[in-house]
């Protein structure tokens, strides 16, 4: 029943920051998905008879690729596949399922916050047995294999019914369709004080959760409304749709603007607003009248985590990606715990979490998580916020402003220039790179450069080195500008400019962010010539 199908390499199957992402029509080419999946299997050893977890964010083409992956897993010798009902598993839930059932690994189908639909984005990612994204050693091997692949293995069987819970046989492999929510919800109950949060809702606390027609809907419905007793209607857009209702499932101030406006609408605004992305690993947190930047959220969650039962013994350390603001560093300093600065992408946190060096990790791109899984986890962050709010009995605004008063405020913003010409973007980065050595001491406006480098990371656990992870330009007084090219886009290049200023003086904590950063924004333009090189006079998205 196993057949070997001849194929030819595609040459463009290089995994980016988080798996392989391409437009749907690219994935629909004959053998395209099969080549990549076979390249994954060919890069792994020792999985015969073991379990593979498969699930996705429900976007267009999800079910088709799941059927392909199941047949190929059977042909390649896996013993069992666990797949979420309807093909659904959020990224954090998939990570948990891999860990809980001691699977060999997992295939997650998602392009995260990128739009979905027949002409939009699709993606495939492989996660290893610790539940986390495959490290670079494996993604490099997958790419190398994809460039020479000549055949893939599959079995000739009809597709399985993904909607019916239970086990079926495919070849000599068992496929078990599981409830995608149950295991995850149970884990959340272990980590957080559900009765305290339930009481808070009982006292009239008002929340809005926008699932953005993406994968978190069923999880948020079950946990926030059913188990925590929030009124029905608290969770909005809770049905995962193949095209996310035509929107970008990206929980930021541009794509979740309605939620933002509601939270800023004055005294009648809800107490707490939150949203998550396509695959459920990102979070947006907004209090009544205040947006919490992801970098601040990381610092505040780390500083208050011990209020939740799952973290009552304290946290071992914090890790943040390099472009994430240093707000978390100040918490770590004060607590005397470790702080680690890693390249962008969750795969770099896995070793630190496995080694017990850190408990909480985060990225400026709305990702926060802990050692409960090996992915960032949108709903987890929201539940930890709820737990903290329930215990402290203060508003989000009070908690944030007190945090700034204690630790100082890191004004922070990211400017994205999307879909710019790839050569222009590379040219901009190259031009900065050649000037790095000569920049220290240079004056840009009133700012003086103290250091400039291309960030390289030495993993303290396995000693692997990752180079060219973003250009950092540091100024006197601790301000900085970082330039990076995105590794998740599917059209042209996306330039990300990260801007940060530290302000210790509590009397200056209520400035508008863009004006607080105005001189640094001007310095970024002067140093990199963004306008001249990209032809853009303003960023596409400011977060
Ligand atoms: C972006 C974010 C990064 C995140 C990655 C995957 O990567 O900046 O912080 O880890 O997306 O997140 P890039 O290379 O485009 O900057 V997700 O929620 O898209 O899986
Ligand atoms: Co995501």
TrEMBL record:
| Residue ranges annotated for the Alpha-D-phosphohexomutase alpha/beta/alpha domain, each copy included | 13-148, 183-286, 295-407
Please give a single GO biological process term from the UniProt record.
Answer: carbohydrate metabolic process
The domain of life for this entry's organism is: Bacteria
- InterPro entries per the record? A-D-PHexomutase_a/b/a-I, A-D-PHexomutase_a/b/a-I/II/III, A-D-PHexomutase_a/b/a-II, A-D-PHexomutase_a/b/a-III, A-D-PHexomutase_C_sf, A-D-PHexomutase_CS, Alpha-D-phosphohexomutase_SF, PGM
The beginning of the lineage is: Bacteria, Pseudomonadati, Pseudomonadota, Alphaproteobacteria, Hyphomicrobiales
MF GO annotations = magnesium ion binding; phosphoglucomutase activity
Return the protein name: phosphoglucomutase (alpha-D-glucose-1,6-bisphosphate-dependent)
Specify the species. Answer: Rhizobium terricola
User: What family, per the record?
Assistant: Belongs to the phosphohexose mutase family.
